[in-house]
Amino acid sequence: MKIEYDPVHDVLNIEFLPETKIEESVEFDGIIIDYAQDRRIVAIEILDASKRTTKAPTELIGLTILKEKASL
Fold this sequence. Notes:
The protein has 72 residues and is an all-beta fold. It has one domain (2-60). It contains no helices and five strands. The chain starts with a strand and ends in a 25-residue tail after the last strand.
C-alpha cells in the first residue's frame, strides 16, 4: 500500500494494488475509486483533500498498520 499527497493539485492517493491495471473508475463527491477487472479496489483518490480534513493531509498520515500471519 502506498499513500501519496500532491500539494500542488491537493489530491490524496491511496494505492492498494500498484501493479494492477485499472479497468473502471467511479467518482462520487470528489472521491474516485479505481477498480480492477475482478472488482478489487486498486486505488482511492480524494480530490480537494485539504478542504475535507481539519489538518494538512500530510499531518494525517500517522497510520498503524496491523498484519496478522496465519499459521499453517
